[in-house]
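Lab notes, practical 5.
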Amino acid sequence: MVAEEDTPNLALEHVKTLESILIAAATGGSHEDHNHDYERLRREFMNSPKIKPLLPDFVRDYRSLSAFWPFIKEQASTYAERRQIIGTAFNPLVDQLESLDCMPSDAAISDVLKKFDAENVHVIWVKALERRSTDPEGAITIARTLLEAVMKRILDERGKKYMDKEDLPKLHGMVAVELNLAPNQHSEEAFRAILGGAMNLVNGIATLRNRLSDSHGRGGPLPVRPSARHANLAVNMAGTVAVFLIETHLNQLDEC
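Output from the prediction step:
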């Protein structure tokens, strides 16, 4: 059974089993051979508050493979088309479970952000986490907002002025110089590489936000529709950079 405490890996394995059963049923496989497994997995997923909202509509609607068969037969005449329909419908749930499986840093990042600014920065972080799977475009926008909030808070605490509409790379440049984190402030090549990497991450998040998020109205479709894994990447990068800046800022204040 897929219980709340089960690992994402186990839930993902069961979801892929369910997907395979449906594909088999839609492409000439026996309904009777796998119907018991389908009903069992469907029942477990329907009882999971975390998984049920992301189940394909046809899983929620049809309690047996024999009930599912007329639906998929009507949707497409070829096996390839049916596989595509089923695979596409399962993508949001698979993306969510894959992202959960690689999130060991969430709690650690959350702890630092909450101690630094529980009422603003941490609230933004929680919103980003909540939207990674259900609203990837919104999560990417919030990832950028998180970095902006952290950088402005650090500059405020250090009495440094900035423009309210300063772009993210410019804000990061100001904070980096203030914290002695600019690559050109160091001669050791390893430090320069790490700090340059942090700068590239910030630039990447800014670019991702401008191109893939919901931050700007568009006359046409997005060039690429972001998925949960894109949002997961942006949010995790933003959280990692934010913690690095905060810990450097706080360590320097402690040394004064």
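Observations recorded by the TA: Confidence is low (pLDDT under 50) at residues 1-7. The two ends are 55 Å apart (CA to CA).
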